[in-house]
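User: Can you fold this complex?
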Amino acid sequence: MRIDHSSSLLPEVTRGKKIQIVVDGNSLDAYEGETVAAAMIAAGIWKFRLTRNHKHPRGVYCGMGICYECLVRVDGVDNVRACMTPVVDGMKVETCKEVEL
Amino acid sequence: MTESYELAVIGGGPAGMEAAVTAAESGVKTALIDNFPDLGGQYYKPLPESFKVKGKTKTEKEADVLVGMVKGLPVTQVRDALVWGIFPDEKHGGWLVALYGPDVPKKIHAQMVVLATGAYDTPVAFPGWTLPGVLTAGATLTLAKTQRVVPGRRALVVGTGPLLLSVAAHLIDAGVEVPAVCEASKPLGKAIPYIFTALGQWGRIEEGAKYISKMVAKGVPYKMGWTIVEARGVDRVEEAVIARLDAGYQPVEGSEQTLAVDTVVAGFHLIPNTGLARLIGCQFEYQLEKGGWVPVRDETLQSSLPGVYIAGDGAGIGGAELARLEGRMAGLAVAVQSGHLTHDQAGSVYARLKPQLAQQRRYARMLGALFTPQPGLSALASDDTLICRCEEITLGEVKAAVAAGARTIGEVKMVTRTGMGNCQGRMCEHGVTNAIVAALAAEKATHQQVGFYSIRPPLHPLPVEVLADAAEDAD
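Assistant: Here's the predicted assembly.
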């Protein structure tokens, strides 16, 4: 969920331009400046990938680009860290792609 | 043509920015490299450029001042750049820093480097910790502060350290329900020897009080000596079980409580991000209360390798204030070593820095003593809990490797593949090391004997063509 009210610790922000990304075929609203991970979490999507051996779901864990849990396919490129990748209008994201890195 | 600098600072957080500013002020030709599009790092957590904010917090204003200082000096900023290796330059001396990023050179040369790579949440394994919806304190704060997004509607906050209060307060302000904050440590009793250290920290006490008042206003219990024992759910967290801990940090049977939550924030204090320092061969020592394996440094923060300085949390957990002072100290030392300042000129600055450093180090020692995750917490994982998230290796498999004769973390890695995945061991080293030490309790094994993963380039997974390209260059 996006935070849409102002508080002392999190003063109100005006987000970047509203754009659209496509996650597994579904269009989602996103805002310039957001990461793919933030836009997905804001939309309630938590299953980013499945593990190689057990096919267990994984999502964002470290949020800073070091754990490699939030890997998704972005515009045909596999194993992109969703937490480190800014959204771009029309970007196509696919989740749960089991590709060896 | 490889661009050459007198100094490359790696990491644009509090320590790195201060190091770059101090060096550049003295005339050192400096490059400041950071992995993110904007300077600030994991402490300042900068908002993206396209987000406009009406009011700024104290920390954000502090960051603006520091970033402004960097911009006001002839510091070359290399942002959105992943450092995947550092190599000695055999021909010209100094170091070659290998970079990967959308708009950065493949490498730069620097006579000296300051490593200011910061820290990350100590990954503590418990049953269910790999489920989507379990995320670190750092990730939660990044989402809230830099993206204005919350991970769920009802979040349990567990772990140890002052960051838990910050996470809880931010979540509450964002409208998330927080049923409990479980602090594994019992800091009140342990704090008594440090009471006078704490008195020098009014700013921090004030900040903590602000966080606590938000928890009190919402009736959020701060449960000291409690932690999570399991997160459950199918495709994401649906509930979490917490329990009281005994003196050995073992869950007390019968004390369990089950909470319906969609999110678990786990923040077990921090460990230093030491990959680059290990990769180039700096000497390390084990200091549990600084976060485990930390590089050996002299008084000027120079590592065992001449011309390689290490500042901030990446050299041992001490917080942002200490990181800033250490950054200045390292920048000063570089200015002297590169001949831009005389020892006399540096001396007066050093004399001012020294007592401030001593004060912040006392505070860091207190934090370490109060909140270092104790080895007993490793017992939260059961034999079928994944301890290596990448390669999906369980605690049981690690124990079996030890039973079969493995004695060091390197041997366990060879037998089980722990630490061989995408994260290069950053997420499992803490747990695997503790598991080996615990399994060899009868032999009185120590962390020194068990050791740490050896790190080789590339420090992060890279597209094959980047490595092929680098290999061609080297020929």
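The radius of gyration of chain B is 22 Å. The mean pLDDT of chain B is 94.
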